[in-house]
Amino acid sequence: MKEPKGIKSKVIDIYTQIAKQTKEENANSCCGVGGCSTVDHEVFAEDYRKVKGYNQDADLGLGCGIPTEFAQIKEGDTVLDLGSGAGNDCFVARELVGATGKVLGVDMTPLMIKKARLNVEKLNFNNVEFRYGEIEALPINDSTIDVIVSNCVLNLVPDKFRAFQEMYRVLKPGGHFSVSDVVLKGELPEALMNDVDMYAGCVSGAIQMNLYLAYILKAGFEEVSIEKQKVTVLPDEILAKYLSKDEIEKYKTGEFSILSVTVYGEKAAV
């Protein structure tokens, strides 16, 4: 596996290519922009079409849940979306905060920021803003955010504990988060864990669920709970590139698994 800087560069390259395509183009290109040897994000994605605030132009099919479903967003809240992409979850959050609230999106892929800002202009929203930045060093002031959401992004962050520390820093006392992400149960074979394409595909960057939750608690969060989880099954054509027949069988029988989870946590009120 490459160093963090190399990993981030690869992720930016892949998500720049994704930003150039529609959701349908990504879905129809077999397994996304990388071809059939990489992970098609559609294996993780949820159907947003009946969710209030949904905007088709902002949906690139990159999520692994609907974090706003458990985010308890109220009218007037300031919401931060980590890894906001083309703006899908931001626009759903905007429906919930109303005219008196505000939504901020942060993403490290410049073309995603550009695409999201174009979507804002089309929708004529004046309370949704997108900022360029990295999650380990958020361009957000301390204690200014009511609710944080994120969708299948924290698995892409090399320093996950630092990411949770930053989330804690920017939340107001009494604020909370709801993030959908990919975690692991059991040890994945080395071939999967050491492949940078699988990292960008949200697999090899994922960590064990118990470690994921431990980082959240260590960062200071309380009332941490798993609100939703499901097992994600990768297609055989992807598995065959990395695993032996015996390893594929172990994967299918549940000796190790890839889980999509939505996790909730709170920052204590002063």
Total helical segments: 10
The overall average pLDDT, rounded, is 86
Radius of gyration, whole Å? 18 Å
Show unreliable segments.
28-41
CATH topology: Rossmann fold
SSE order, one letter for each helix or strand: HHEHEHEEHEHHHEHHE
Largest sheet: 7 strands, mixed
Question: What is the count of structural domains?
Answer: 1
Q: Got a strand count?
A: 7
What proportion of the residues form beta strands (DSSP E)?
A: 15-25%
Give me the side-by-side strand order of the main sheet.
Answer: 3-2-1-4-5-7-6
Measured distance between first and last alpha carbons: 42 Å
Q: Classify the helix fraction into a percent range.
A: 25-40%
Q: How would you sum up the global shape?
A: globular
Describe this structure in words.
Helix 1 packs parallel to helix 4 (110-123) and helix 5 (160-170) runs parallel beside helix 8 (209-218). Helix content is 34%, strand content 22%. The protein has a single domain, classed as 3-Layer(aba) Sandwich (Rossmann fold). It starts with a helix and ends with a strand. Helix 3 links the parallel strand 1 (78-82) and strand 2. It has helices spanning 4-19, 23-28, 88-97, 110-123, 160-170, 190-193, 196-200, 209-218, 236-242, 245-252, and strands at 78-82, 102-107, 128-132, 145-151, 171-185, 222-232, 257-266. Mean pLDDT is 86; it is low at 28-41. The protein has 270 residues and is α/β, with parallel strands linked by helices. It has ten helices and seven strands. The protein has a seven-stranded mixed β-sheet.
